[in-house]
Amino acid sequence: MSLFPARLLCAAMIPLASALVVPSVQAAVDTMGKIRETRTIMIGVREAVPPFSFVNARKQPTGYSVDLCMNAVEEIKRELKLPDIKVQYKLVAGPERIPKLLAGEIDLECGSTTNTMARQEKVDFSYTFFVAGMRVLTNSSLHVETVKDLKNLPVALTKGSTSEKLFKQLADGELRDAKLITYENNGEAYKALKEGKVRAFAQDDSLLQGLVSNDKTMDTLSVSRLALSVEPYAVMVRKGDTALLAAVDRSLAQLYSSGEINALYDKWFNTKTLTIKMGRLTRDSFVRPNKQPGVAMVLGHSI
Q1: Span of the secretion signal (predicted)?
Q2: Residue 290 φ then ψ, to 5°
Q3: CATH code of the domain containing 100
């Protein structure tokens, strides 16, 4: 029998099939509606990524990213005309960030998450609020000027991070002889470096500086000059959650245009224990709010 009639039958069925599946694919995410009904917003925070998102000595979530999200909550209150919205925090580890967001366990993720093209397939991002760069933390005696300087060395990575993704790609080429060891979180990877179990710890420079300054090990550990990526941080929301994302973006744009962001930046990055000068890319993101994804600085690789 000719296949032609079957093709016609398939073609005739396509519109019907499309009509059946399109509503579920295009179903809008309405977190603002849920917040209006429950008068509650769930915010995902990190336990130990200072100065962005961490739990302080009083067991309270705090940090630069948390402050930005709380400012967004104020914008949500104004839009919904609900001054009594309750904020509930939920700790999320690196690998849990996107799954818990997609499962509805959190509504916003306020940490140190890089906007990447790969992640954009699953979630939406706010305007960039900080731009970091992936670097390597080592003992001060070890100088890392190129990727090849890490050959044959044990390197610590954090599970679910962009550094884990990039270094696994490098393991197939430039770092074929390196020993890559993945840890559950930054704290464990940092501890492994201090105990001599690894010779280097690859992570975003701002997070590395936060760890070192809190631990007062700046005399013995140093961050490499070598930058392996550009990492723009942003708030994550569920894909298609347009109303909530618009509120977050408005709150950030207002901070940027009014100049209030400068005082907030100084609060967390110019302290007695930590000094991170505002980089050009971070400043540019305040002047011209954008959602550009991060990129690897090593040709042929991605983050």
Answers
A1: 1-27
A2: -150, 170
A3: 3.40.190.10
